[in-house]
Amino acid sequence: MFKRVAIVGVGFMGGSFSLAVKSRLGCSTFGMDINPEAIKRGKELGVIDEGSTQMLALRDFEPDLVVLAVPVGAFEQVARGLKEVLDEKVLITDLGSVKGRLVYMMEDFFGGYFVGGHPIAGTEKSGVQYSNPELFKNKRVVLTPTQRTDRLALQKVKFMWERLDAFVEFMDPFVHDVVFGAVSHLPHAVAFALMDAMEKLSKKTNIDLFLYPGGGFKDFTRIAASDPVMWRDIFLENRENLLWAIEEFIQSLEKLKGLIENEKKEELIEYLQRAREHRLRID
Ligand code: TYR
């Protein structure tokens, strides 16, 4: 099993991963971040053992696993940097929300030693101070191996996640992006858009509507407090699947709007009943 783990991106996800492998697998961890504050805080809080803002420092740490926990828009630049300082055959994995093309891009750098990973875990919080060693417990982790993925590397990464009490599932990288474009990226986009609409409605009514949040509004928009850079990168990286899902959502909203406008009592009940049943099924 891995003993020396390097984490690129010392935020909430990278920090939680560091704490988890430290406490559950007894690993020593090295954090790398372009923001010196993140390294400083990470070390102070005991989230990472060592850290640096310089990629070159990884050379001395000699990791046996490197985990990318940066926004997906930074993957290529990070990969280029890592390639220069890492030994060949060091395993690389990631925690990114988009796979597809990115997985093949990473393979161009690291061949079969890159294993794409996506833990379906997290909150709207960002920053290393929120790191939680139990974050991955009983959560699903999607790994996206390809023809090229080294089988031993894949087994090791799978086994590692299982030791953190996560459930591992395999998926094709492009299928992954269709699935999470719909179930994750669309809801985040809609939550951000709802806040935008609320801001406009506040201006038009001259009432600060944000002063009157009910439980529904809070439940629905919790994820609109998520990190903007992370989500910008996800939206752009998975834009085709997301645009397709947004289009479908717009049609659903138009449909609902039409039923309300035309006072279609029966059809409204049907529409709401179907939605309610789907919601009741998922937990
Ligand atoms: N933001 C989600 C939440 O708060 C967590 C999450 C985000 C999970 C991105 C996965 C992911 O790719 O529930």
Ligands bound here?
tyrosine
Low-confidence spans: pLDDT under 50, at least 5 residues? none
Named CATH topology of the largest domain:
Rossmann fold
* Number of structural domains: 2
Organism: Thermocrinis ruber
Protein name: prephenate dehydrogenase
Keywords: Amino-acid biosynthesis, Aromatic amino acid biosynthesis, NAD, Oxidoreductase, Tyrosine biosynthesis
GO molecular function: NAD+ binding; prephenate dehydrogenase (NAD+) activity; prephenate dehydrogenase (NADP+) activity
Task: Characterise the protein shown here.
By secondary structure, the chain is an alpha/beta fold. The protein contains 11 helices and 9 strands. It has helices at 12-25, 36-44, 58-61, 75-85, 100-110, 151-163, 173-205, 215-221, 228-237, 239-261, 265-281, and strands spanning 4-8, 28-32, 50-52, 65-68, 91-94, 114-115, 117-119, 140-143, 167-170. It has a 6-stranded parallel sheet with strand order 3-2-1-4-5-6. The longest helix is centred in the last third of the chain and has 33 residues, at 173-205. The site of tyrosine has 9 residues, from loops.
